[in-house]
Every structure is written in structure tokens, then in C-alpha cells.
Design goal:
Layout: H1 2-28, H2 34-61, H3 73-76, H4 87-112, H5 117-143
Helix pairs in contact: 1-2, 1-4, 2-5, 4-5
Length: 144
């Protein structure tokens, strides 16, 4: 249980960093394709926040405490924050972060296995969303 809580708090940090990165990119998107891309950024930020809420709720259900400490978010996150100003760079940063998240969720699911089916199912659902996000970022990058 202790290891699952540690993994979930890492996932929580990852989702929160993703929310912040997508929000920044949403507000900073400029250029001819900015409106469409910014809309994707905003949608992804909302979905990542939903993931964070699910993870925090599961941590509490398992008797743990969700770690929202902003001081340590980046060191616990699998994904990076990004301050790019060019739209293409923003999309690329989000694609990389989504691919990192996909791999992190795959590893967590493998580690949890059949020991905690509820957590595994939650992570599998989040993984499916992250794979979709990566595909969408890849498609946007191809259009730039």
C-alpha cells in the first residue's frame, strides 16, 4: 500500500504539472492556428485536472494523503513544465510530456498488477486518455 501511495502521489504531481503547462500554453498561444491549438490545450488542462482529482480521491480511499505541495511538485512529477513561446514548441513539449506520462502509467499498471484492481482500472482509464492526448498533439504537430 505504501508503494502504491507513493506511485499515486507521483502521478498526482505529474497531472498537476500537466495542468499548469497546458494552462500556460493556452493563454500564451499565438499565431494563425492558435485558436484551434489553444482550444486543445484548454481541453487537455481540464481533463488532466480531472485525472488529478481521481488520483487524489483514490489516495484518500487507500488511507493516504494527496501531496499538493507546490514546492516539490516538479521533483515528483514525471513530466516537465514548459515556458515555450512558439506554438510549435508548445505542441512538441506537450507531446513529449504526454509520451512520458503514457510510459509512467504503463509502468505503474505493471507494478500494481492484480494487487489493487480498483487502482489499476483507474490508471488504465487515465492511460487511455493520455494516449489520446499524445495522438492529438502529434496530429497538431503534423499540421504546423
Amino acid at each position: 500500500r505504501k508503494e502504491v501511495l507513493r506511485l499515486l502521489n507521483q502521478a498526482l504531481a505529474t497531472e498537476l504539472i500537466c495542468v499548469l503547462r497546458y494552462k500556460r500554453h493556452y493563454f500564451m498561444a499565438r499565431g494563425i492556428h492558435a485558436a484551434t491549438v489553444a482550444g486543445e490545450f484548454r481541453e487537455h488542462a481540464a481533463q488532466e485536472l480531472g485525472h488529478a482529482d481521481q488520483i487524489a480521491e483514490r489516495i484518500v480511499q487507500l488511507g493516504g494523503e494527496p501531496d499538493f505541495n507546490p514546492v516539490t511538485l516538479l521533483e515528483r512529477s514525471h513530466a516537465d513544465y514548459d515556458t515555450s513561446s512558439a506554438l510549435r514548441d508548445m505542441i512538441r513539449a506537450n507531446l513529449v510530456a504526454e509520451r512520458v506520462a503514457v510510459e509512467a502509467y504503463r509502468q505503474m499498471i505493471g507494478l500494481i498488477g492484480d494487487k489493487d484492481p480498483t487502482t489499476r482500472r483507474m490508471l488504465e482509464a487515465i492511460l487511455a486518455d493520455e494516449e489520446e492526448h499524445a495522438d492529438e498533439m502529434s496530429d497538431l504537430l503534423d499540421k504546423q
